[in-house]
Amino acid sequence: MLGPRVATRLAASARRIAAPAASIRQLALVVPRRGVLLLEPQSLAPSARFLHSSRVMFAEIVEVEGPAFAESISEGDIRWIKQKGDFVNEDELVAEIETDKTSVEVPAQYSGTIVELLVPDGEKVVAKQKLYKLEKGAGGNAPPPEPKADPSKPAPLDSSTPVSPPPPPPTAQSAKPAEIPKQQPKPTPPPSAPISSQPVVNVQAKPLAVPKGVPVEQAITGSRSETRVKTNRMRQRIAQRLKDAQNTYAMLTTFNEIDMSNVIEMRKAYQKDFIKKHGIKLGLMSPFVRATAYALTDQPIVNAVLDENEIVYRQYVDISVAVATPKGLVVPVLRNVEGQDYAQIENNLAALGEKARDGKLAIEDMEGGTFTISNGGVFGSVFGTPIINPPQSAILGMHGIFDRPVAVNGKVEIRPIMTVALTYDHRLIDGREAVTFLKKIKTAVEDPRTILMNL
Fold it and tell me: What domains are defined for the chain?
């Protein structure tokens, strides 16, 4: 408790301090009551301004760096998913960096609002480069949600809003129904064009000249426009690698045919038991991958690589499996296939295939590989010659399965036949070794028991 004289002096001092603050809406009137200082709000003139603090004074703005790349990747093109002013949560996807092999995701390191993009969309970026500025905070610039009105409760009236008097009673003239003016329908706005991260150049069609003697109504009609779209980095890299392979390797292709009857019957006979035990279906790729690994151990020169004046023999079998994605062809690698069975191969294929379709393949998933299998049969391919995947020395091309008449024990029978092609580097692999290797795959696929007996 304060004495009356002390309380009066303190109240006067508080009023002198608060008097210059003419920029706030309300002041607290300090009055002494029973020896205690009390604060009573006092309204100021309507022209007085609010005293508020800007969030910029207290906001923490950080510059966010991009992710690190693998040693084989030096740069990539950035594609922004979020824009300036967008609020992002921690770990939410902000951008993607498209490299020569895959797309690297750029998640948000903090929750907050993007205040500036430091790199334009489509520009090249390097590892650990600063990409954008982020204002850290839980709410960012997002406005708070408006409270929903309760229909059971009437809305409160604002004392500052003038209340209009009740309408006068209707007269004889006003009792007539008033004509409702016809409103002109608002024109429908044109649909907005989709925004693309890649520049598109449209070439307008030129009118065709009508030949002499041909009526105008019989002239050729229709659009002859063209569209140019910038190629992504993955497509550019694929084109460069394939052309380098043609310029470097002495490529030669040998062919053979595989009777798929036993594999198809094996799948029908053991599919339910296989799913019950391993939780995954038995496909056609696992017999080929297992047979290829078996043939590579039998013909190690196909698993080797030519390095200038030396031949490098690999004591392991890492098989790259070509997977088609919307952005291009990727080749994730199955490691140490020589020691895997059908179930392990199927599970690894399913995991890599899912990551490839979702665009979540890491650089490590595609590095290395000693041999490649390309299955064009899933698209209905009948015949073709694959190109070697550098720096490997050979590639196996699988094609579609079609019923064909074949001679079996002196009789003509209809069998499901697949054509397979082996393209190899003739600088390193001789024709005898290539043909022997492909025949080994044929035997192991047609009769998997040869693998068990090491024949």
Answer: 61-136 (2.40.50.100), 236-453 (3.30.559.10)
